[in-house]
Amino acid sequence: MGYANSAIIESGSLPTHTTIRDWIVRSFNRHKGVVTEILGRSLGRINISFDAWSSRKFTSLLGLAVHFLDDEGKFRTFLLGLPQIEGRHSGENLADRVSEIIHEYGFEDRIGYFVADNAESNDTCLEDLGTEFGFNKQHRRLRCCGHIINLVARSILFGTDADAFEDDCQAEKEIQDEIKLWRSKGPIGKLHNIIHWVQRSGQRIEKLHKLQLIENTALNLEDKTTYNVVTDNATRWNSSEAMMERGYQLRNALDSLVQAEVTEWNNYVARRTQNGTKPMPKKSRTKPAIVDDKMSVEDWSVITEYLAILKPLKIATKRLEGRPKEGKFGAIWEVLLTMEWLLKHLEEFKVQHELDEEPHLRIGCNLGWMKLDRYYTLTEDSPVYLAALILHPAFRWSTVESQWGDHPDWLVRGKAAVQELWEEYRNLPVEQETIPEQPTVPRKTTDLDDFMASIRKLSTRPASLQSATRDEGLGADVVFDYKSETLVEELRKYTSGHLKHVFDCVSTEDTARKSVSVLGAGGSYSGLRPLPDDVVAWISGRAKYNMTLAYTAIGEAFQFGPQPVPANPEDAAFARDFWSLAERLLADGKIRVHKPKVNARGSGLAAVLKGLEEVRNGTVSGEKLVYTLD
């Protein structure tokens, strides 16, 4: 303050009670023109984030910040306004305030994307702004990932009625009612009650520290540091995580504190009932609520499971909450991969706990997965998520197709949306001057970093290994690389020489010989196309030989390379029944077809020739190339 205002140094105090406010307003007006000029020279569109907030004195404010590249290519963030919101936080009201700030700084024609939380009022706000400034609300609406993760975590911890639960806790209720309400939430609720019970008494806090010292001494620990409990609140999931983490750390001391209360109550009951031989007198002490919150070994085990479930959410929050530097730490390309990683973790936890007798954890896993899946699906509304990923040089379309190959419809829609976005930007002038790189800040790696690194490897993996990843995802017990030089030895070892059937879907001379070499005694080989007579003779001397060629379904003779194929009326008759059978098998999910890759290199006969060249070069695996003849 002294640096900015010499009056403080001269007088040693603030002149009046309005001085700070006056200085802030004066400084704001002095810099406003400079900020407007910098915004006008930005290299691209100006992105906006905003959020409504109420102060402790119930003053409603709207914070609005902009994010952009300045004329030197430096990423900048400016807080442009903190106006008071009069009336409700309605979408229309929010839109009015946001619009005023946009007009005030004059970037109406450079509006980019909006980041806000998931409140419905923000959807309405973006609809009004889209109508005023002429943009597609869904395309420009980006959802705050931290808020999504908060909703997912609260669903895991408190269930579908998380907001109602919070409202009940904040209502004017007797403390006993609130304790019962928390206890209904299982081990988390019991631990919450214990933590707040300790925090309400200076004597209990002092006793907690003494119990920790006794434990540290008994374990001969060099570090004799003792800790306070960490209280949680119902609005921030990470406060619950911190409460559980510290609670588990202090579990022995907390158990001792609660057990002392339980023992005292049990002794009191024994005296009043003469060891249970008489009913409890009406004029007796009220049972301390903490007695019913005693944690069992199983309860503490559930707490550790909750911590394990929440750990990925904590990692993801840290990853996405920072300012992007060097294209990471909160960059938009990270969103889809982070959500995919979180879904993977929650799916694993769902399977792990689906048979648990303790319902809260099992239900929480399912509710958290459902909440995250809902918002993951909503990312499709804005093509910028996918565009950012495929424009990243370490990923591109090949990685996206490998990672999400089991969602062909999504890929088709995504490509169309990204193409539309590209058309919007393709004719804009591009500055050729390179932007200097910023120094990279070293950072400890996490499981999420490892996951993203594994996804990056997909774009450089051999085609057969990419296919293996898809096969594993479709339920294959084990997958081998058919191009491996040690394939025969690997298969023999895995099957212990007892393999009975091989269906060779490649059906070259090489794969046929390898397949038969793996078969055990009395095995059978089936291929997809004719093989030379000498190869057939070699196979027939070692296994039962069969060949399935779809072209025989036409019931006419034809030539397949050098091999003449005679007409086969039986195959033609079977084909008529097979089509209906195949439809049922596909509908029931009993068989799955190769992933179609439609017009990957364009359409028409010229593209077909390119596709054939890809097949010859061995760069196609686990997919069917399909071209339309426009």
TrEMBL record:
It comes from the Eukaryota. Keywords: Metal-binding, Nucleus, Zinc, Zinc-finger. It is found in: Nucleus. The keyword Repeat does not apply. The keyword Isomerase does not apply. GO terms for cellular component: nucleus. InterPro entries: ZnF_BED_domain_contain. GO terms for molecular function: zinc ion binding. PANTHER family: ZINC FINGER BED DOMAIN-CONTAINING PROTEIN 39, ZINC FINGER BED DOMAIN-CONTAINING PROTEIN 4. This is Trans-enoyl reductase ACTTS2. The gene is ACTTS2-4.
